[in-house]
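Page header: ASSEMBLY MODEL / two components / 446 residues total.
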Amino acid sequence: MEEVKLLGFWPSPYSHRVIWALKLKGVKYEYIEQDLRNKSDLLLQYNPVHKKIPVLVHGGKPIAESLVILEYIEETWPQNPLLPKDTYERALARFWIKFGADKGPIFSVLFRYTEEEQDQNAIKEVVECLKILEEQALGDKRFFGGENIGMVDIAYGWLCHWFKATEEMIGVKLLEPSTVPRLHAWVERFKQVPIIQENLPDYTKLLAHFKSLRKKFTASDQPSNDR
Amino acid sequence: MGEVKLHGTWPSAFSYRVIWSLKLKGVPYEYIEDLSNKSSLLLQLNPVHKKIPVLVHDGKPICESLIILEYIEEIWPHNPLLPTDPYERALARFWLKFAEEKCPAMWIAYRTSGEEQEKALKDTLEMLRAIEEHGLVGKKYFGGEKIGMVDIAFGQIAQWLGVIEEIVGVKLLEPQTFPRLHTWIKNFKEVPVIKENLPDRDEMLVVYKRLRERLLTSP
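Prediction written out in full:
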């Protein structure tokens, strides 16, 4: 079995997607923490196009982009499958993963403003997004993947600690039992899955990190996807 | 094999991605032009985004052009559009994601004016540079010796970008600055399936010019 390395960043939800997938499939890997304020030559060599984490390196060959890495992991280590067997169901799973990726900017906007500055339209968009997820993607299932977690659950894993920290930081609660009860229940259920529970960043540290990130944003008005 | 229908709109680049894939694999299908742009059938088939293209296979709808391409690849594996090696597939998917994230810039440049357009033009240039520097080195097509899914995904650069450049009056893809991309465009448009299935440039100019005027004057 060839060596597997993961270049990551501890507060990054994208890093965590890869960690969860590797651990769910029992793949041994070496984790290498990256300092994104001072990018290593290794990172620049492995991801010259975007210069971002996560990067998975398998047998010396680098793969960038968390969702691309997840598909690679699924194909290379097919045990404990994270995508459905049926081709149509796979297309649906990929549709919902893409939905989350496309709506990313809506959630990023929320991150950058304080409660007073919040654009009510931005909040409405986020709530609408959460409702679509609940009604059409999750429905009455235990997980997006059905009885067990799958790639879609992993893709939306940022809705736990990361979205919660965003809500706390900006002082607006959006993912609540009163607004999206089934999605809220999913968050709680997802966090209880042993592999997930054992591989979440420390919440207090994450919140502090987000707060310092936001100071940087409001200072320079420079968007960053490094987190 | 079940019935295949494609709901599309002329001259959408995203519609063409699906047309090219189906034709490259010799899959017979019925094409349905979505005339009213938000027909009730479309709303039923794609309730989340209400957009074309939508592929309907055996009565089941699949939305989002790149997801449709992955579906087509799995259901009709002959004449593969993705490499068989998992690492090469990952590299292909990296560029598919890149196309998904970066190509919208050229459309933003088309739809806007002023500062917003300036930024979009800059982003488009950056995208072209990344492809030139990292995507095509030593390859005839993104797919290697034959065209593949990544070539299809970047197809909008081969025909639609030129139309956008002419309408907004800015030349971005200069042959001297982007020799690899320039050669790729020529090669891509010579592939028989592509050559026989490209929207007419002059007709596109008329449609896109008119649409741009509407977009810029509407509130």
